[in-house]
Amino acid sequence: MVKTTAFLLPIIRVPHFNNRSAMRSFILASCLAFASFATAQTPSALTLAEKVVDASGLRVNLENSFVQSMEAATLQLKATGGEELANAAMAAIRKFFTDNVKWEEIRPTYAKAYAAEFSEAELAELLSFYESPTGKKLAAKSTGLSADASKAMKEKMSSQMPALQAEVMKIVREHLEQKQKAAK
To answer: Which of 34, 36, 99, 121 has a 20 to 30 A CA-CA distance from 46?
Structure first.
């Protein structure tokens, strides 16, 4: 079986859509593209992979990750329009996710990805782990752990951001100067 680089929960910036149908099509197409690297899997491997996906808590973690990323976006609303506006926006975001991101459509995509990445024996081991008390604890806490780690990283990077921005601006200036010299 050909192994690919695993990426289970990419963080992407999605374009703005004016209607739900377009957003739903985008999400489904993204999931299909994600699964396109999958090699042929046996029905038993896909069944095992579906069980692993379910046991790992991926469904809840995806929703929580989406909501957490949107909460950051609503902070500006809270600052400019108050708590009531921010709460209304979050309610709309949760409803949108519930209405447009259908687990039944996404689940097979993740199962195919897992089946492409892991052998049946490895899938069985993963399932055993996620069915164990420690695996259940990991599944229940993984979103919170990721959020905590992300917050800590954001705090660390915020103090270093001015230096990074200065370095990037220096590179941009040098690049533009080189382009101007080459154009002469």
So the answer is: 99
Residue 183 within a domain: no
| Residue 2, in any domain of the structure | no
Q: What tokens were used for 159?
A: 């103090």
Neighbours of 155 (CB within 10 A): 9
Q: How far apart are CA 165 and CA 157, in angstroms?
A: 11
- Give CA–CA dist 110/52, Å, rounded: 10
Among the listed ranges 4-13, 85-94, 101-110, 155-164, which one has the minimum average pLDDT value? 4-13
In a domain, residue 123? The reply is yes
Nearest one of 87, 73, 68, 59 to 150, comparing CA atoms: 68
Q: Which pLDDT score, from 0 to 100, does residue 20 have?
A: 57
This prediction has a pTM of: 0.55
Q: What are phi and psi of 50, to 5 degrees?
A: -60, -40
* In a domain? residue 115: yes
pLDDT higher than threshold 50 for residue 170: yes
Give the C-alpha separation, 105 to 25, whole Å: 11
Q: How far is CA 177 from CA 49, 96, 164, 174, in A?
A: 53, 46, 20, 5
Three-state SS at 2: coil
Count of structural domains within the chain: 1
Within 82-102, residue ranges assigned H as helices are: 83-100
Residue 62's domain comprises: 20-131
